[in-house]
Every structure is written in structure tokens, then in C-alpha cells.
Design goal:
CATH superfamily of the domain at 66-215: Vaccinia Virus protein VP39
Distance between the termini: 66 Å
Structural class: alpha/beta
Low-confidence stretches: 220-229
Order of helices and strands: HHHEHEHEEHEEE
CATH architecture of the domain at 66-215: 3-Layer(aba) Sandwich
Number of helices: 6
Strand content: 15-25%
Helix content: 25-40%
Number of strands: 7
Oligomer: single chain
Strand order of the largest sheet: 3-2-1-4-5-7-6
Largest sheet: 7 strands, mixed
């Protein structure tokens, strides 16, 4: 498929989702997709058939993250993506929100090698990859409450998992959960300081949605009868 044909197909899929792509973003999304496709022929980064550029691959890998980018707070500076795999949703989202400093967490070495190559090839200044399970990063105090946004797609979400994830989020920061149609939301199992903030539909073609959680700041307790000043 030529670059022109790719851009035309990508633009059509974006319009169906109500997403507008400028020429620069479209070029960078294509560069990421082609790099992913080339590496996927050697190591298993995604089960989607990338060489044929099917609509499902464009929607899942590119359009869905770009659609979610509209919900990133304008003040956000640092983002962590957990279980990054082949780089989506993290890389397309950051391409759509220039200036976000990205940390990707991937436990599998070969996938982490690809992610580092994607960072280099796409010129993602300030981006980094941690080859580790995200639970292991609790041993790094520099990452505690250091991110405005944490994104998660391919991670099993249990109450313990969410409590671990929130350790990396600043007070007032957000967690983006990319959810498929048949996936139950973990709202009923949330415990402070994490609470549900909003749920947004993403792509009708995928019946996907974005569940947004917020880490509320924990104020100092005030003894009963003591006035606040």
C-alpha cells in the first residue's frame, strides 16, 4: 500500500470516529504503524494482520488512542503506560499530545527492544522504557506519585492491581482504562484514594470505551472541634 493510500484510509477511519488528523500527525502515525508492521513479522507484537492495513487495525492501534487524547488534561506533563506491548495506545496518544513525557512499562525484553526503537525512530524526546513488571517499579521512589496520567489497556485489573497503579499517579492525576465491549469495569471495587470520574465512548466500530479514574488528594485530618484556618 502506498503512503497516499494509507493516508486516505486512515483519514476515512478517523472521520468515522469524529477525529481530525492534520498532515503531520497522519505522517507520524503511518511511520509508527509501518515500523510496528515490520517488527511484527519477526516478533509477536500484535495478533492483528498489519500488512493488509485492515480497518480494525487502524481503529484499534491508531484511531482509538488518538480519540482518547482529547480527554488528556492540558496541564498534564508526564504519562506512564503499563503493559505497553507493541506501543499502542501509548505512542499514538503521545503523538497526538506533543509535550507529554512518556514512560512505557513492558516486562518482555524483545517487546521492550521494539519500544526503544520506536522512540528513536519517531523522535519521542524524553520517552523511556522500563523492562520490568510494573509491581517491581514500586521499589523506585522517583516514580511514586510522579505522573499526571497512567494508561492501561492489556492488563488484568484486580483491586490489588489498581492500588499498585495509583502509587505512580500524582494526587489529582488520572488513570485511563481502555475497555472493550465485553469487559466489566472495575468501578465497584475502587477504594480511596481512587474514584470513578467519567466513562466516554471511544469507537463505535470496536464498541470500546474509556474509563477515567481520578486519584483524589488526601488532605490532612483535622481533630473534631478544631477550626480550619
Amino acid at each position: 500500500m502506498t503512503s497516499r493510500e494509507f493516508h486516505d484510509r486512515l483519514t476515512r477511519r478517523a472521520r468515522r470516529a469524529g477525529v481530525t488528523l492534520d498532515a503531520e500527525l497522519s505522517d507520524r502515525l503511518e511511520a509508527y504503524y509501518r515500523l510496528l508492521s515490520a517488527w511484527n513479522s519477526k516478533i509477536n507484537l500484535t495478533g492483528l494482520r498489519l500488512p493488509d492495513v485492515p480497518p480494525e487495525a487502524l481503529d484499534r492501534l491508531l484511531i482509538e488512542p488518538v480519540s482518547a487524547a482529547r480527554y488528556v488534561p492540558p496541564t498534564a506533563e508526564r504519562m506512564m503506560d503499563v503493559g505497553s506491548g507493541g506501543g499502542s495506545p501509548a505512542i499514538p496518544l503521545v503523538l497526538a499530545v506533543p509535550g507529554l513525557r512518556l514512560a512505557m512499562v513492558e516486562s518482555k525484553t524483545r517487546k521492550a527492544v521494539f519500544l526503544r526503537e520506536a522512540i528513536r525512530a519517531l523522535g519521542l524526546t524524553g520517552a523511556e522504557v522500563a523492562t520490568a513488571r510494573f509491581e517491581e517499579l514500586l521499589a523506585r521512589p522517583d516514580l511514586h506519585e510522579a505522573h499526571d496520567l497512567v494508561t492501561v489497556r492489556a492488563v488484568r485489573l484486580e483491586p490489588k492491581t489498581l492500588m499498585t497503579l495509583q502509587a505512580f499517579v500524582k494526587p489529582g492525576g488520572l488513570v485511563f482504562l481502555f475497555r472493550a465491549s465485553a469487559t466489566a469495569d472495575p468501578i465497584a471495587t475502587l477504594t480511596p484514594p481512587v474514584s470513578w470520574k467519567a466513562t466516554y465512548p471511544l469507537l463505535e466500530s470496536l464498541r470500546s470505551r474509556l474509563v477515567v479514574l481520578e486519584k483524589r488528594p488526601v488532605g490532612r485530618s483535622v481533630p473534631r472541634g478544631t477550626p480550619r484556618r
